[in-house]
Please model this.
Amino acid sequence: MTRRTRNTLACLVVLTAGCAAPAPRNLSLAKQDVDRYAESGRYQTDLASVGRRAAAWIEHRSAAGGKLAIVLDIDETSLSNLRHMREQDWGYHQQRWSEWVAEADAPAIEPVRTVYQTARANGVAVFFLTGRRESERAATARNLRRMGFDGWQGLIVKANGSKDSAASFKLAARQRIAAQGFTIIANLGDQDSDFAGGLSERDFKLPNPFYRID
Model:
């Protein structure tokens, strides 16, 4: 009998006596881990690593020509909300978030700004694809331009009343881009839902230990 089988049987034997799942990690300790990761330089190093690979791929792939595009997520991909999240103790408050977006002052994530500039320099169209809402479009566009993202092909946001999941909304948006004749050569995001369904030649996932969006 293997060790795994013995452990499973032991758990079954004591199930009625309370063989419970382990408790989740203490929240305050988890927050400390996230803060250390963001402050230690590892977060920036990991962002830079993904950015370098994406820029190199775009430069290489664009040499073949064609009607090419890349897709960039915004939050924790093109723009950083780190300052806001720290102010909220890593939590989320709808009103505070709306005020933060309206300020249009989220800084660029520098490695992704380099990716953006590489795409533009090589004649590749850029589409920003975000779960932000139509009511946040103007402030988002202003923030992007203030941070050096200018000349993009499109800014795709969710309708104000949309109930679609992030995954389904973003897949449908990529399908519409492809229907315009674009070949999406790279898709950059920080969530698994940014890539669900494919339609990109290469996916580049940036680290995000702060939150999850399905």
